[in-house]
Design goal:
309 residues, alpha+beta, 5-stranded mixed sheet, 3-stranded antiparallel sheet, elongated
């Protein structure tokens, strides 16, 4: 029995919670995966997994072995990488996940520059607004817009974006301008459903006092572009990040509201699975994006002078 391969198969079965998904990940057959796990259990003289037609769980012995096997495989991968030219030269397929709007507006223009600089890297870009499981779904890197980063993976902040409450001039002519957060209760609001509290808006005044308002919503959407389009059409008040509405604020298509009150800023984060085993292709991509967004990010610049708002 190839014990190292058996460890790899066992870890993959546990991490994917499936013999079939493990077989797909390892490019082998489910029967082969089953054989390796059975041989490992026979070699150790103990059961590692409890299996049924619907569930898969670790025994106490299996749980302890799983943690040790993960460590062993990481050590082997690190040893191989240190001796491989691939650790020095970025090459191969790089799977990246990013939110849809941010990916279209601010990442898509950067990809040609990256490809010219690193022609041996093949980009595989998936724009998905939900929070993906990097390991489970096979991504090397994800760009996440959040205030919390990631507790399970390594996070590097690339930039910051402000959240702004705003509306179109047409809406404000018809309905007036709210002067305080409490005034929002008499306005039509448009909620972003991926926010923690879509119809409960949390603002802070200049003294640091929190103002929490349950707003009446005429629309709920899980897409920032949809919320922006509705606001531009005069349908209501939104809050959205400056990376999405920065141009609208600069040109006056949307008007910022509630001066003296602010929403929490959000960070643009690069998230990747492990600090210890960063491949060259992931490392150069993170450095490339950090350089692209260094200083004042493009969504916070004014036209002409490139300075912050």
């Amino acid at each position: 029995m190839d014990r190292l391969r058996a460890f790899e198969v066992f870890v993959t079965v546990v991490s994917r919670s499936s013999f079939t998904r493990a077989a797909d990940a390892l490019d082998t057959s489910p029967a082969n995966v089953t054989r390796y796990v059975n041989e490992l259990e026979a070699h150790l003289g103990t059961r590692l997994l409890n299996r049924s037609s619907r569930t898969l769980s670790l025994t106490e012995t299996g749980e302890a072995l799983y943690e040790r096997c993960k460590f062993i495989l990481e050590e082997v991968a690190e040893a191989e990488a240190s001796a491989s030219s691939a650790a020095l030269q970025p090459r191969g397929r790089l799977r990246i996940n990013a939110p849809l709007s941010f990916g279209v507006l601010h990442l898509a223009p950067l990809w040609p520059r990256f490809r010219r600089k690193y022609p041996d890297v093949t980009l595989d870009i998936a724009l998905i607004d939900r929070v993906v499981d990097i390991v489970e779904e096979g991504f090397d890197l994800t760009i996440r817009i959040s205030r919390g980063g990631s507790t399970a993976h390594v996070a590097r902040r690339l930039a910051t974006s402000r959240n702004i409450v705003c509306a179109s001039p047409a809406y404000l002519r018809r309905h007036g301008r709210p002067q305080t957060p409490a005034d929002l209760t008499s306005h039509a609001c448009i909620a972003y459903t991926y926010a923690a509290m879509a119809d409960q808006w949390h603002l802070t005044d200049e003294a640091g006092k929190a103002h929490i308002v349950n707003v009446p919503c005429v629309m709920f959407t899980n897409n920032g572009d949809t919320a922006r389009a509705a606001a531009l059409a005069g349908e209501g008040i939104i809050w959205q990040p400056t990376f999405l509405i920065g141009d609208d604020l600069r040109t006056g298509r949307l008007v910022p509201l509630l001066p003296g009150f602010r929403l929490p800023d959000i960070d643009v984060m690069a998230i990747y699975p492990s600090r210890r085993h960063v491949s060259a292709k992931v490392r150069v991509m993170i450095d490339f994006l950090a350089e692209a967004f260094a200083g004042t990010p493009p969504w916070e610049r004014t036209e002409g002078d490139g300075q912050a708002r």
